[in-house]
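Query structure, 188 tokens:
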């Protein structure tokens, strides 16, 4: 029997919440992920991250380290029409405003990132990702790939969010890499 995505979302949301209840552990894991990402992304790139909401892995230390290493930054910007675009971000909180769903978004110009760091609820080593179920990332990545985009999609997560299996729909976009506090690996 194929597991229900709604049930799995709740299970993995709770797993993630359990680890983020410990602020010191959460900060240590975020710093570890930042080291893996800065070691992996070596050539100058435009990198889209995200401002964490709820109990998502905090990649702000990663974004700060990448920016300090000479990379440009961007953030996703969900739109009312269910699309998502990416906009340049200078790394400051002053250039943020509340977007759709009150998600912090940048006021910068529209751009196409070389690397997309994206949050998730669960992942598999083969690159399957379970998100919140609204499909913003899947639609945005599918549109980029259909237009020849050769960038990387890197899922960011805690190791305990790994699943042996996830139900996958035809529109779900696979990740190229995953990074957790245990390392970074290629999925394809």
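Result returned for the query:
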């Amino acid at each position: 029997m194929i597991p229900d995505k709604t049930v799995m979302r709740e299970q993995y949301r709770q797993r993630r919440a359990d680890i983020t209840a410990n602020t010191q552990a959460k900060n240590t894991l975020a710093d570890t992920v930042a080291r893996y990402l800065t070691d992996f992304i070596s050539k100058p790139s435009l990198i889209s991250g995200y401002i964490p909401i709820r109990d998502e892995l905090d990649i702000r230390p990663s974004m700060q380290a990448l920016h300090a290493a000479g990379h440009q930054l961007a953030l996703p910007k969900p739109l009312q029409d269910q699309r998502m675009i990416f906009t340049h971000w200078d790394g400051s909180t002053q250039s943020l405003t509340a977007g759709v769903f009150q998600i912090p978004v940048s006021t910068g110009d529209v751009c196409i990132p070389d690397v997309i760091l994206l949050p998730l609820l669960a992942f598999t080593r083969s690159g399957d990702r379970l998100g919140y179920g609204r499909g913003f990332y899947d639609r945005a990545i599918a549109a980029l790939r259909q237009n020849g985009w050769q960038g990387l999609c890197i899922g960011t997560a805690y190791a305990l969010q790994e699943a042996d299996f996830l139900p996958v729909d035809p529109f779900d976009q696979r990740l190229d890499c995953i990074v957790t506090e245990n390392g970074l690996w290629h999925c394809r």
